[in-house]
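Hello again,

I reread your note about wanting to compare the complex against the isolated chains. To keep things tidy I'm splitting this into two emails, and this first one only covers the full assembly. Below are the input lines as submitted, including protein chains and any nucleic acid or small-molecule components. They are followed by the predicted structure of everything together. The single-chain runs will come separately.
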Amino acid sequence: MARIVGGIACSHVPAIGAALDKGSSGNPYWAPYFAGLAPAREWLARLKPDVAILVYNDHANAFSLEIIPTFLLGVAPEFPVADEGFGPRPVPKVIGHPKFAWSLVEALILDEFDMTIANEMPVDHGLTVPLSVTCGQVPEWPFKVIPLCVNVVQYPPPTGLRCYKLGQAMARAVAAYPEDLRVVIYGTGGMSHQLQGERAGFVNREFDQAFLESMVNDPERLTKLSHTQYMREGGSEGIEMVMWLTMRGAMGGQVREAYRFYHVPTSNTAAGLLCVEPTP
Amino acid sequence: MSAPRDYEDIPGTYVYDAERGRVGYTLNMFCMSLNKPENRAAFKADEAQYLDRFPLSAGQRAAVLARDWLGMLKVGGNIYYTIKIAFCDGLTFQDVAGMMCGMPKEEYAKMMLAGGRSPAGNLYKERE
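Full-complex prediction:
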């Protein structure tokens, strides 16, 4: 049967992708950040996943405000890389796993999570940057990817608690799949940042450090944070971190921390990276 | 039951909620149209004429033409959408962030390198 072998929480800042794509990842601004990724890449390569379920948000590329799905799962055989206004990122196309994805959709909906289903959609930096962060520059991505897209652009996003429960349902859905698959799950976005208004550039290191710590040892605390707490203490766009809780919910009660990394700044944002493994 | 808007006392922050979504929809959909190269070309060729295609309020129209990035947020703009105008102009996110908080580009970049805008004094609007 399918089983979850690892969980990754990671930022998806577009400038990280641009630094790789333009060859500037070794310059003095970026080198300390990229150096911090190496242990996570080695860890992930050792896990040899077959499929990743990647929780992220679209940034007005695949979707606009016409129709706003709160939770959406991509069931396509492949997902083209979106043109975000400067041409698509020069990264491999994203290969899906329709059979597994459809089984997840069925299981989640019957478990009372009303997923929107996407048969066709491009994927933007929200999905491709986490792949670049954890896999580097590769001719093809080393595993298949099932996109799980969450609305965090139009307020209100789903609550952190709802995202966490979706992760728990996802774990049940994965365990119910009969074929042997090694699955990793990503929660992406954050960490603290604000892109808008007179408070743009807001970063809260203390909030982020406490968040990382609770992601490992006390996720229940995080499920009690209100949207206003996220926005006030983590920045208006820091509310993306609710998506980390889907990963954490899927990992079960106790986890083993494999790696943790935190860096400020990546462009306008504090970047975090956390790798966890299930405990037997 | 409508949600309490207890985030309105966060300083310098314009949450894109139902109120702003209701008034901002057409403004943001104009921004979305700039994802297409032919629309970017038409907008650049004659901004006023291109904007006639969208039922914007006078305030929204003026904010776009003046590139008043903060003003756009106040009339329903969503930053993920209004930034598309900036990209069309060849600006970066950091350029616009600096302009929204009234800081010269270099000063904003220096603040980010030093760890970003501190939470101290930036969690609540000043009490009257």
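For quick reference: The domain at 11-278 of chain A is CATH 3.40.830.10 (Protocatechuate 4,5-dioxygenase; Chain B).

B.
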